[in-house]
Amino acid sequence: MLDAMMRAPVGDDVFKTDPSVNALEQKVAELFGMEAALYFPSGTMANQTAIKLHTRPGDQLICDKYAHVYNYEGGGVSFNSGVSCKLIDGHRGMMTAEQVKQAINPPDFYHSPLTSLVCVENTTNKGGGACWSVNALEEIKTVCAENGLAYHLDGARLWNAMAKTNESAETFGNLFDTISVCLSKGLGCPVGSVLVGSEEHMKKALRIRKVLGGGMRQGGFMAAAGSYALDHHIERLEEDHEKAIALGSTLAALPFVKKVEPIETNIVIFELDETKMSAETFISKLKGKQILMIAMGDGKLRLVTHMDYSDLQHEKVLAVLNSL
Ligand SMILES: *Cc1c(COP(=O)(O)O)cnc(C)c1O
């Protein structure tokens, strides 16, 4: 990847003349069968741009209570777009079409915020890496179409979902108005996300990205890492999923682990029996062995496997867990 970055031809992406950025954008647009794409420095900026595209100040979007756009983007929904979130109490970060339908404010009831957008996340981060069924996503699309709502997919972890379910990128491209995908999570790039959608949406997104301070000049050095990752780092994602399953079954066998949530992709969320070991003690014991982890709140702990988590490190972590 570093070699590919060093060899990248570059220009000035502020003028849209960086060949490596343009090539990455074209590659991702083609992959999803959508008209156009735009490169971003982060997934947060890509999602925030999509929300800005589809809404006006005072509007409301619908998302699950676990959604990244609601929980982990610094309040950007209100800061950047002046929009509120109607939260749905879904299952593992996923909601049903019926729940979405119930959450829409009647457009003629002018006392309530106007519902204009539905955001879903695949895989769900706080939902433990769970994957949506295409059928459930289609049902929500129908609700969106019937009610004139835009439909955005936060696909920061979509590569993991596709590796797990064997669905094609075009399948998702056909469903959504916009999709954001991360190059810096499972695919191992230092930075970068891409937003895909229609030509018209991406033209507007370019202006919004500029306003958010996301205009980049020789961005091609970074974009080349993204193209490299798309060519070389997707096929190996299954290895991360296998390691997550091994971590989960090792954890489940420990006497002080109360519950391990079902593991579908590369995220392992688990809870300890606090009468036997506190999360604080567990974290500090692991830290003593150079294994770092953080708590997710509500007594939940999270491990995430990724390409820089090697076989050797994995063996070490399993051995340490078994020795506790
Ligand atoms: C990480 C993540 C993002 C944001 O990505 P950044 O590049 O860290 O801004 C968005 N959505 C989900 C589901 C994520 O996991």
Task: Describe the structure using short key phrases.
single chain; 324 residues; alpha/beta; seven-stranded mixed beta sheet; four-stranded antiparallel beta sheet; 14 helices; binds pyridoxal-5'-phosphate
What is this entry, summarized?
The protein has 324 residues and is α/β, with parallel strands linked by helices. Helix content is 44%, strand content 18%. Pyridoxal-5'-phosphate is lined by residues 42-44, 47, 68, 121, 125, 154, 156-157, 182, 184-185, 193.
How would you explain this protein's 3D organization?
The protein is of the alpha/beta class. Helices cover 44% and strands 18% of the residues. It has 14 helices and eleven strands. A seven-stranded mixed sheet has the order 1-7-6-5-4-2-3, with helices on both faces. Strands 8-9-11-10 form a four-stranded antiparallel sheet, with helices on one face. A hairpin with a 6-residue loop joins strand 8 (257-260) and strand 9. Helix 2 runs parallel beside helix 11 and helix 12 (237-252) packs parallel to helix 14 (311-323). The longest helix has 16 residues, at 237-252. The protein starts with a helix and ends with a helix. Bound molecules: pyridoxal-5'-phosphate (PLP). The site of pyridoxal-5'-phosphate (PLP) has 14 residues, from helix 3.
